[in-house]
From TrEMBL:
Claim: Transmembrane helix is one of the keywords in the record: no
Amino-acid biosynthesis as UniProt keyword: no
Nitroreductase domain location: 30-204
InterPro entries reported in the protein's UniProt record: Nitroreductase, Nitroreductase-like, Nitroreductase/BluB
Organism: Erythrobacter rubeus
Pfam families (alphabetical): Nitroreductase
The entry's keywords: Flavoprotein, FMN, Oxidoreductase
Protein name: Nitroreductase family protein
């Protein structure tokens, strides 16, 4: 190793059975997470959002530049503006405005079992929209001059940690990705070198919320892992 400042690091050593049982228990809690599309307007504590963003902000990332920004939107006016702009894009995507859909027939076919369409009422009803921005530059400065590395990987991992923490706090989430979503930069007053990556919709499910049965079909371990 080249010389650099260090601090000690250690982890509690768990007995194997305890390690296995903890891994399985977190697995089971994470497996219970569902992508929810029916949100009530019931408020949720801001502290939960803050803690989840702090968890996300601890994600492994390129050169510790922490190339992310989380714009937390709760104002009804902002949420409405985001909904209107997102639905305008989604109408083009699904061809709901009378023109040919931007999405291919194949893509629309792949979405059939999810039941999604151009209506996104949750963007207004959910108490919080966490708009996640990836900083292509400017991770360690304010003026966007520093180059960042592995930006999509870093921010993707951070989003996973954000969602996991929100789920652990009993909140429902939805990763929403209108396409294109450049309008989010203006709505959230972010600089041009930041790229909106996704909206994480956060709140509580409505009493009669459902999820698509299709989304419950998960590939078994034998299909998603190989051991070499
Ligand atoms: N952004 C659109 C379409 C969409 C695309 C994929 I891939 C999904 O898994 C779900 C939706 C929408 O939100 O409707």
């Amino acid at each position: 190793m080249r010389s650099h400042d260090t601090v000690p690091y250690s982890l509690d050593t768990l007995p194997d059975d305890e390690a296995i049982s903890r891994a399985r228990s977190l697995r089971d809690r994470l497996k219970a997470r569902r992508t929810c599309r029916y949100f009530s307007d019931e408020p949720v504590p801001r502290e939960v959002i803050e803690a989840a963003i702090e968890a996300a902000g601890s994600a492994p990332n390129g050169a510790n530049h922490q190339p992310w920004h989380f714009a937390v939107v709760s104002s009804p006016e902002k949420k409405r503006a985001i909904r209107e702009a997102a639905e305008a894009e989604e109408r083009r995507f699904y061809g709901a405005d009378g023109d040919d859909p931007k999405a291919s027939e194949e893509w629309l076919g792949a979405l059939k079992d999810l039941g999604t369409d151009e209506d996104k009422p949750f963007l207004e009803t959910a108490p919080y929209l966490v708009v996640v921005f990836a900083q292509r530059k400017g991770g360690i400065d304010e003026d966007g001059t520093t180059q960042n590395y592995y930006v999509n990987e870093s921010v993707g991992i951070a989003c996973g940690m954000l969602i996991a923490t929100l789920h652990e706090a009993g909140l429902a989430t939805l990763t929403h990705t209108p396409s294109p979503m450049g309008f989010l930069r203006e709505a959230c007053e972010r600089p041009e070198w930041e790229k909106p990556l996704m909206i994480v919709v956060v709140g509580r499910p409505t009493k009669d919320a459902t999820v698509p049965a299709h989304a419950l079909k998960k590939k078994p371990l034998s299909q998603i892992a190989s051991w070499l």
